[in-house]
């Protein structure tokens, strides 16, 4: 039995192949394995949409995994932070806190989406703190679904435009002091995260850090971390291999 961690799939009804790739990945897991989806599972999420083929597909896929005794957990990302406990029950996964310490491996490790590590992006961090307020969320969900979708698409498109012209790493990148604080506060030396779409294995960047496993986004390739009693393994393969 092992724990797997993935992030940044950005699933949507418009990309059926990526949805199928996720299902194929899940089908390769064994009875008793666990999976953590560490944020940005969906391209965006503004509520359950009965007409959304992707949401229905994911619900059924995760139900099948549950019936095979594979437990699936979810952490909020910056694109699907509005998923509630009720939504989690709909999709057949279990919500985890956005800062989670896991003890499956030889030593504890910190698992998070990674947006909290970009602490110099003050505009986003302020936006995130505002959206956590219950009354703000209640107001947002009073809007018709099509309006919520338009807002989400606008935010997503603005983010993609910023990415296309190049993001200043001093603002939008990871902050070593913030990594250090999260590790020290949680008594961990290993951290696993996504968010930046920068796949890679890093060592000893801060006094507390022994290893940082950065997940890539899913597209031409897919990546994951496998954790068992022997260690932590960051892996990436062409996504075509999931269909063989």
How would you explain this protein's 3D organization?
The strands form two sheets. A six-stranded mixed sheet has the order 4-3-2-1-10-11. A five-stranded mixed sheet has the order 5-6-7-9-8, with helices on one face. The longest helix has 21 residues, at 145-165. Helix content is 36%, strand content 20%. α1 (16-27) packs parallel to α2. It is built from eight helices and eleven strands. The protein has helices at residues 16-27, 53-67, 85-91, 122-131, 134-142, 145-165, 169-172, 176-185, and strands at 3-6, 34-38, 71-75, 94-95, 100-102, 109-111, 190-193, 200-203, 211-214, 221-228, 231-238. The protein is of the alpha/beta class and 244 residues long.
How would you summarize what this structure contains?
The chain is 36% helix and 20% strand. The protein has 244 residues and is α/β, with parallel strands linked by helices. The strands form two sheets. The chain has a six-stranded mixed beta sheet with strand order 4-3-2-1-10-11. The chain has a five-stranded mixed beta sheet with strand order 5-6-7-9-8, covered by helices on one side.
Features:
244 residues; alpha/beta; 6-stranded mixed β-sheet; 5-stranded mixed β-sheet; 11 strands
Strand content: 15-25%
Largest sheet strand order: 4-3-2-1-10-11
Mean pLDDT: 94
Structural class: alpha/beta
Secondary-structure element pattern, one letter each: EHEHEHEEEHHHHHEEEEE
Task: Give the overall shape.
Answer: globular
> Would you report the number of β strands?
11
Summarize the main sheet: 6 strands, mixed
Percent helix: 25-40%
Terminal Cα separation, in Å? 23 Å
Radius of gyration of CA atoms, rounded to a whole number: 17 Å
Count of helical stretches: 8
Spans of 5+ residues with little confidence (pLDDT < 50)? none
What multimeric state do the chains show? single chain
């Amino acid at each position: 039995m092992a724990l797997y961690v993935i992030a940044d799939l950005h699933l949507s009804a418009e990309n059926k192949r990526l949805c199928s790739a996720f299902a194929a990945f899940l089908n390769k897991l064994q009875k008793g394995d666990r999976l953590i989806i560490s944020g940005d599972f969906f391209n965006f999420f503004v509520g359950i949409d009965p007409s959304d083929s992707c949401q229905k597909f994911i619900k059924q896929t995760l139900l099948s995994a549950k019936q095979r005794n594979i437990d699936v957990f979810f952490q909020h990302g910056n694109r699907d932070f509005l998923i509630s406990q009720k939504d989690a029950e709909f999709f057949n996964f279990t919500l985890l806190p956005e800062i989670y310490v896991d003890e499956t491996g030889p030593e504890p490790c910190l698992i998070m989406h990674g947006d909290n590590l970009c602490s110099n992006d003050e505009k986003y961090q302020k936006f995130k703190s505002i959206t956590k307020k219950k009354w703000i969320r209640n107001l947002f969900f009073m809007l018709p679904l099509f309006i919520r979708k338009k807002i989400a698409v606008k935010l997503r498109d603005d983010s993609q435009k910023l990415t296309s012209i190049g993001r200043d790493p001093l603002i939008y990148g990871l902050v070593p002091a913030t990594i250090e604080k999260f590790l020290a506060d949680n008594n961990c030396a290993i951290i696993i995260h996504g968010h930046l779409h920068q796949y890679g294995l890093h060592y000893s960047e801060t006094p507390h850090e022994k290893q940082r496993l950065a997940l890539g986004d899913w597209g031409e390739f897919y990546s994951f971390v496998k954790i068992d009693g022997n260690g932590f393994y960051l892996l990436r393969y062409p996504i075509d291999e999931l269909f063989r």
